[in-house]
Amino acid sequence: MQASATLSVNETFVSIQGEGGLIGAPALFIRLDGCPLRCSWCDTPYALAGDSGEQMDVQSLARLARHHRHVIITGGEPLAQDIKPLVDALQASHVTVETSGTIFADLPGVSLFSISPKVGSSGYRPKPAVLRKYCKSAAGRMQLKFVVADERDRVEALELLAMLGDELPEETPIILQPESASASAHGRYEEHLRELTEAVLADERWRAYRVRVLPQLHYLLWRGAAGR
Ligand code: SF4
After folding, report:
1. N or C: which end of the chain has fewer CB within 10 A?
2. CATH of the domain at 136
3. How far apart are CA 140 and CA 4, in angstroms?
4. Rounded to whole angstroms, how far apart are CA atoms 20 and 226?
5. Which pLDDT value is given to residue 185?
6. Nearest-angstrom CA–CA distance, 102 and 126
7. What range does the domain containing 55 cover?
8. DSSP letters along 61-92, please?
9. So what's the pLDDT on residue 3?
């Protein structure tokens, strides 16, 4: 981790939050550069290498965030850098951190950890030990967001939830979101969304959780255009 008040930033932009419980909320996005993973369907391949970011100081980023009710710190994997100074500087806003759930960070100033555990089709496995730490430290301010490409992803998501058991705070939203990168290549996004919805309705195991099936709204609106 870097230990400084500058961060490697891939891009900043204003858009709507397209995913999860805050779907539709206007927000400033701060996309940090670099990620240790290489998910098969990653929709931000330009933000992975960690060598294309602009070094920006935290105070400049905080100035950009003025008058924004919501700020989304995303990536890449934002927790690959030390974001505590940035989170501390953004306390006038609701701060979401979008992370893969492979790195733990104890950050009380984060309003919402949007954790996307990696299952089957991503090419990775979730890290229950890391997720258990979030369950303890971020109860009431976390959501689990599963990107689902196929049945194996649904099965592995349910297995993970069962593994977490009572350690998962009961109020935690469980977001199921159709994978968009490969689905869009075949023009099947809406069909994929419908299939996921029907599969969840047909499987009573999901009823134990606060499940929501949601599309990526920014994908529906702009089909993955940069800066959206
Ligand atoms: S963790 Fe996120 S940013 Fe990193 S490779 Fe996977 S989808 Fe892309």
Report:
1. N
2. 3.20.20.70
3. 29
4. 20
5. 65
6. 7
7. 6-219
8. HHHHHTT-SEEEEESS-GGGS--HHHHHHTTT
9. 43
3-state secondary structure of 46: helix
Distance of CA 185 to the CA centre of its chain: 22
Counting from 1 in the atom list of ligand 1, the atom nearest the Cα of 38 is 5
Q: What is the pLDDT of residue 2?
A: 45
Measured from the Cβ of residue 222, the count of other Cβ atoms closer than 10 Å reads 15
Cα of 94 vs its chain's centroid, Å? 15
Q: How far apart are the first and last CA of the chain?
A: 28
Does residue 37 fall inside a structural domain? yes
Q: What is the pLDDT of residues 95-127, one digit of tens each?
A: 999 999 999 999 999 999 999 999 999 999 999
Distance 39 CA to ligand 1 centre (A): 5
| Residue ID of nearest Cα to ligand 1 atom 8 | 42
The pair of three-digit structure tokens given for residue 176, joined into one six-digit string: 């199921």
228 is a domain residue? no
> Helices H, strands E: what count in the chain?
7, 9
* Backbone angles phi and psi of 20, in degrees to 5: 75, -165
Q: Determine the longest span between alpha carbons in the chain, in angstroms.
A: 49
> Total domain count for the chain?
1
Q: How far apart are CA 62 and CA 12, in angstroms?
A: 12
Whose alpha carbon is nearest atom 3 of ligand 1? 76
